[in-house]
Amino acid sequence: MNVIAGAASRIGPGVALCLVIALFGFALQAAEEAIFGHPYVDALVIAILAGIALRTCGTIGGRWLPGIAFSAKTLLEIAVMLLGATVSIQVLLSVGPGLLAGIALVVLLAIGASYGIGRGLGLSHRLALLVACGNSICGNSAIAAVAPVIGANGRDIASSIAFTAVLGVIVVLSLPMLVPILGLSATQYGVLAGLTVYAVPQVLAATAPVAMVSVQMGTIVKLVRVLMLGPVVVALSLMSERPRSAETAPRLALMRFVPWFILGFLGLAALRSFGLVPQAMVGPLTLLAKILTVVSMAALGLGVDLRVLRAVGGRVTAAAGVSLVLLVGISLGLIRLLGIG
What is this entry's stated membrane topology (predicted)? Predict the structure, then answer.
């Protein structure tokens, strides 16, 4: 008990600070929803920007640091694990095999191309990978899930989330303009939105002005695209944790290759697919994962020096922007290839 009490008192102040910032983010998101009907800036983005602002305006004392570090790492890993309960194989079966394979191909091509663009613009390996996964899969959620696997630091995470968030808003506002320009049907536009827009709420915001068919198709495609996060994260963890030599390989356990929270993610996904996770539990687990992710993003923001963030801003924005245009082009190519009408 003394050990637990000691650990709680050590991390308590920092965790509480991150929680306050997270609550501030949720409050602003709720205000957006009340005013506009949907959020343009997610609580996750607000939290990380608020954390950066607080770090920039003042000094974070030593008593806060253990809790901030715990929130940035452990709470984020728990959040990623809980997301497994939201994944079900039934979603995969709701689309045809051609479109299912096409979505997977688009994600893989976009990740590879986006990573190459980022590296070509001088981004570090980890930052280029975060931007690539964020653009290609599901924006902030993908960045948050990939970051602990590849060992990304708070500066890289903040950079990729901040500028990806800006582009996310631009996409929501501008994507419907492609319907008359390209002569897209409601179904085609739904597929395009599902393949390119970052978050599920943003898909709804981007498709609702067009047609209900677009909303339905966009949501299904987006959910399948989100399911690619699991295989991508597992693949990245395997590539990031390869053994140094054949001599040491036998000593490495499975946990060396795949982090515990990824195993937990896959376990919960399997339980959900077999109906062993009650439907009534999915909503609360999703909400808890969301809260923990926002708290961890506040912690990451508190660890970011804004001067360093400003130094890489132009390159990150360029990498994310060019990658996004490329993703739209690949998605349109898939729509034409599959003959979606």
Answer: Multi-pass membrane protein
